[in-house]
């Protein structure tokens, strides 16, 4: 990164199947002629981000196709019996990571160095209990590590170290873009931060609310401590006002097209209003 001039960065946050919102935001940015010098992603944002970094000109169309067909159905495929069988066999997760690996291997280059745009993604190291940023070398495993949702997908072994979903350590890594020199940042997210959390009313909501607090607080802290010369645009998802906890069905693809369209319309309106 030292020899790359960074002015505009796209930061793509995590959120599983809700990552479709980011596709609508990317389409609006492309239509507005806004292009990144740097892409930073975590979890599903790493998947969307690496597709953009690999082929900026065609990324939105390719992502629209993938979200409409392969990504969710492939990554989290399997009947209830199959999932229970996988959990019984492994003791740790419901799905194999190999189908997602196959999709990525067909869709992106083998290494970071082959990407058209600078790209970084983050994963959580199990052994060291810290964030690990990936920016060079083998690409597919790095993105898989960033996407390895605990309990759904297995940890990814890279050099004898095991990694889980980057959202555990950076749900929306705006601070990383600042560290790398970005002075204009567009934040793409999955809509949950647009709605305040409510005090849990049921036992199952307690853990979900706790998780949401954990995933949001670092982003809030980084936003509150931005340098004065950094311009940040948190793009609107145009989400439908549902509770953030109501959209956590990780295999629910019924609203993917609607989410893409909502985010596209809301972000287009936002960008049009900029001076």
How would you describe the overall organization of this protein?
The chain is of the alpha/beta class. The protein has ten helices and eight strands. It has helices spanning 20-31, 44-54, 59-68, 70-75, 80-90, 98-107, 140-147, 174-179, 203-224, 256-273, and strands at residues 8-12, 38-42, 119-125, 130-134, 156-158, 161-164, 184-188, 231-234. Strands 1, 2, 3, 4, 5, 6, 7 and 8 form an eight-stranded mixed sheet that branches. Helix 9 (203-224) links the parallel strand 7 and strand 8 (231-234). It is globular, with a radius of gyration of 18 Å. The chain starts with 7 loop residues before the first strand and ends with a helix. The mean pLDDT is 88.
Write the layout of secondary structure elements.
Blueprint: E1 8-12, H1 20-31, E2 38-42, H2 44-54, H3 59-68, H4 70-75, H5 80-90, H6 98-107, E3 119-125, E4 130-134, H7 140-147, E5 156-158, E6 161-164, H8 174-179, E7 184-188, H9 203-224, E8 231-234, H10 256-273
Parallel strand pairs: 1-2, 1-7, 2-3, 7-8
Antiparallel strand pairs: 3-4, 3-6, 5-6
Strand content: 5-15%
Number of DSSP E strands? 8
Shape: globular
Radius of gyration: 18 Å
Number of helices: 10
Q: Report the order of strands and helices.
A: EHEHHHHHEEHEEHEHEH
Question: Any key phrases for this structure?
Answer:
eight-stranded mixed beta sheet, 275 residues, 41% helix, 8 strands, alpha/beta, globular
What's the short story on this structure?
The chain has 275 residues and is an alpha/beta fold.
